[in-house]
Amino acid sequence: MSYEQTKNKVVQFIANTELHRQLPVQLILNPTIQTPSRREQALEWATRPYKFFEILDIMTQRAGFDHPPDFYNAAEISAQVYSNLRNPDHQVSWKTAIKCIIALKLDYLDASLLLGIGGYNFDWTDAKDLIIIYCLMHNIFDWFTIKSLLHDLADYYLS
Hints:
Elements: H1 3-15, H2 17-29, H3 36-47, H4 52-62, H5 68-74, H6 79-85, H7 94-104, H8 108-117, H9 127-137, H10 143-154
């Protein structure tokens, strides 16, 4: 699909506010992607006082990133930012959390959990969040496409 076709689909998605009322629950409870063990893990992560880096570390290993530089380069974050994430008292920024989510190619459930542990939530009324959600739902993890959509449709720069 071309960028313009993707952009048109995202515009339609953003405009469909009726869908936004139903979709969060559907994405979390979807039985095709949420196995019982996955739901148990999600519940544990959501109810225990984990730190951002603890879950990030589990997810990077699960995604096959064997070395920190492989991950932070894929996430387009600096070694310094990655090092800061290791500090349990460090408050991750929304942008850094989103960059980690994109690099890990997370689905909506895992993305929501990681974002929540970082102290944030997706806002279903915010264009930039809806663009990220659309990309997660449609397995769009190409930096150029995501950054272009954010710039063109939400006047937001993920740099």
